[in-house]
Design brief:
alpha+beta; 7 helices
Amino acid sequence: VYENLITTLTERYSAPVQSAHVAELEITLDLLTPCKRTLVVPSNLNFYQLHRILQDAFEWHDCHLHQFVLTKDKYERPMKIIQPEFMKNEDWLALDESLESTDSTTVTVREIFESQKKIEYEYDFGDGWIHTIKLKRFIPNCNTPYPHCTEAMGDAPMEDSGGPYGFDEKMKILNDPDHPEHEWISEWVRSAWWHPLDFDSINRRIRQEHRRCIPVQYD
């Protein structure tokens, strides 16, 4: 319905009926094999909203903790952007007192990437999935301002697969029918809701959650 309305209005007025300031981001997941996504997101999104979109882009299931890490100023002093409930947790903040921490719901994509060339997004501190996020460009008047993926390369890991080396080993077994653990690993992969890269599936997930750019409310 929403897409049909936009199409109808665009045709009626012979001009775009929606536009926004957006950021084009390139996200590379640190694996033994290439894994990359390029996203377009409204630049006024906060970092909790960005986290939710990244979960969909890499088809994670938001089962673990996450944080963004960046260099804050010209002295290369680092800062973490973390989930809001941890801002009140002294034990969490004491894990690394050298890092200043900021609530992820209070800072926007535009605010950070106007001064940062790249930042890191870490998901699941046990497996340690490290994503490098680079700003490719800002687009001031984008006619497709809703979050979407424009490029995707490489399979993303399944949850709890043991980090880059664990995922690499599981994929080798999965692709080797003669391996003694092939049947067990195949069953485990199916139970983890994993499938190889599917560009259309990524955008369906993002569209279902974020198509209208409605602010995400943190529970």
